[in-house]
Amino acid sequence: EEPPGDGTEPWGGGLHNSNNNASPVGWPGPCGTRPFSPFAARTASPEPSYVERVVLEIVESERTYARDLRSIVEGYLGKIIDAEEPLLRPEQVSALFGNIEDIYELSSNLLQSLDSCDHDPVAVAVCFVTRSQDFDIYTQYCNNYPNSVAALTECMRNKQQAKFFRECQEQMRHALPLGAYLLKPVQRILKYHLLLQEIAKHFEHKSGDDYEVVVEAIDTMTCVAWYINDMKRKHEHAIRQQEIQSLLLNWKGPDLTTYGELVMEGTFRVHRVRNERAFFLFDKALLITKRRGDHYIYKNHIPCSSLMLIESTRDSLCFSVAHYKHIKQQYSLQAKSAEEKRMWTHHIKRLILENHHAIIPQKAKEAILDMDLFHPPRLPRYSPERLKKSWSCQPLEEP
After folding, report:
1. Which of 51, 196, 252, 341 sits in a 20 to 30 Å window from 310, CA-based?
2. Cα-flanking dihedrals φ and ψ of residue 381, to 5°?
3. Spans of the chain below 70 pLDDT
4. Structural domain of residue 147, as residue ranges?
5. Are residues 354 and 264 in the same domain?
């Protein structure tokens, strides 16, 4: 059995999810008891194999999922649209349900294909491979999910709207409220690759064309899950970037979006500075500010193409940044942990390499960053000019 969910934000754990049906039905119960499967009657003889149980779980859980989506589309959204008097504003409806109708259509078509597979694991895998592009619609839904939660919270504060949602729940005899059903697409898209992995683990022959199809399905749905997580992260960073722009004082430079995506942000103690400084690392620049209430006062910024990193050999938590042409104007930062220092120095080195005007061999970039991740740094200073000399005078060999 799975441990009970902790109720945390579903995006916080990367590819992990809190779906309550993450284990295929019919898997062995505790203490060696017989499998507890609601489908045992139809598969009593002969005993189904592990792979057959996983395939059955994929099909039947998709059936349940499609039914849940239908209840949202018809039991909630349809009634709102058909109401004589508008219960919600159009923008509330859009934020609350997103593109749930597209998700429902995709799930219904997928279920129809799965039903025609006759429990063949290879045919099931093909269903996912042929629809790899269709699952992109989940990106829009997942990006909108925070807006959906906010819209539902707003609706539940309105007595008339809250009463309407409770009545819909009672009519459909749902044990859980609408919010739990709106979360299901987020959970489901992050679960497909896990179920397909269970097929591959117990596939009879770990070679041949059939097995390759299953592996391709796993790769397809894993890429979908990672892509959605990455788009979610970029979406959140873009919103945060707009917030920083609106809170930044004394800034006379261009819009922060010209510096690319926000990579990291953090607050550090700086040597010989009384108050802490807030640092924002973008793809193309390091922004240095001072916090004042809810605002940030601009202090300095260094283009990543001119950024220099100096790692302290005396203090394991300290590192310095500076413009490589103004080395005396250093900012000596003290991280709160060794992991925080490692993450910041690693990304700074990566951006120094990516923003240098010269074309740096990809193998040289990988060798430097791999050395940073797995070995103590050999060079205490990283700057465009120093790195350029290191690979022009002594070309790095393939590791």
Report:
1. 252
2. -120, 135
3. 1-45, 357-399
4. 50-243
5. yes
